[in-house]
């Protein structure tokens, strides 16, 4: 739910309402546990009706995932939008490095503690961990389908997609684990690009020349 410049007043108010509900829900889930918090409690704390919560988010699980779910599609988007002459590995690497530079919350690098509260809620809730796993699998499958369409080889496409998404997720997890252990965001970010370069170089060694977009 990124804020869009040029929003009209009505759209801005809807966005602000959605963000208030979202932040309230995550705070309550983190404090009491996902299963212990009702949608009605979230609605009351957000000063909206229960129906309004469902209008914005659809399900209780969506109160955690909807604003972040698009990021599971980031690798496929990077490959879909890559430049002529750019390989799939290079595209995913470039996108990831741009997110590191921007301290994007989706790669575990953000100064605001709220971003880590979301992860805390997911890790503490089996149903949310399962959804995160399935969403990641869906993202990898989307990338595999895209590569299959381009190359015609489904087996190699699935291997490439799984390798790329797994490497990316390993880097993100490392960011989270180091910050959870007490390192600052700046300390982790200081060598994040170098670690990402090494990780993607390892992947590129096995996928060298694979899925290079024709010039």
TrEMBL record:
Portion annotated as DNA-binding: 38-57
A Pfam family per the record: TetR_N
Top-level taxonomic group: Bacteria
Domain HTH tetR-type: from-to ranges: 15-75
Membrane-traversing stretches: none
UniProt keyword annotations, A-Z: DNA-binding, Transcription, Transcription regulation
Keyword Transcription: yes
Keyword Transcription belongs to the record: yes
InterPro entries noted in UniProt: Homeodomain-like_sf, HTH-type_TetR-like_transc_reg, HTH_TetR
Protein name as it appears in the record: Helix-turn-helix domain-containing protein
């Amino acid at each position: 739910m990124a804020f869009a410049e040029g929003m009209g007043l009505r759209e801005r108010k809807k966005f602000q309402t959605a963000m208030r509900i979202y932040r309230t829900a995550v705070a309550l889930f983190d404090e009491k546990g996902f299963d212990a918090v009702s949608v009605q409690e979230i609605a009351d704390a957000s000063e909206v009706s229960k129906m309004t919560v469902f209008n914005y988010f659809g399900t209780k699980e969506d109160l955690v995932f909807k604003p972040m779910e698009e990021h599971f599609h980031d690798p496929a988007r990077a490959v879909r939008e890559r430049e002529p002459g750019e390989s799939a590995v290079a595209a995913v690497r470039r996108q990831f490095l741009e997110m590191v530079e921007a301290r994007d919350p989706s790669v575990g690098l953000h100064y605001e503690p709220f971003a880590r509260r979301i992860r805390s809620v997911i890790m503490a809730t089996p149903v949310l961990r399962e959804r995160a796993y399935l969403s990641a699998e869906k993202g990898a499958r989307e990338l595999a389908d895209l590569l299959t369409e381009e190359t015609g080889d489904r087996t190699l496409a699935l291997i490439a997609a799984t390798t790329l998404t797994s490497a990316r997720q390993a880097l993100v997890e490392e960011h989270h684990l180091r910050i959870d252990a007490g390192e600052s965001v700046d300390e982790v970010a200081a060598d994040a690009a170098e670690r990402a370069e090494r990780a993607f170089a390892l992947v590129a060694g096995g996928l060298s020349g694979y899925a290079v977009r024709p010039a």
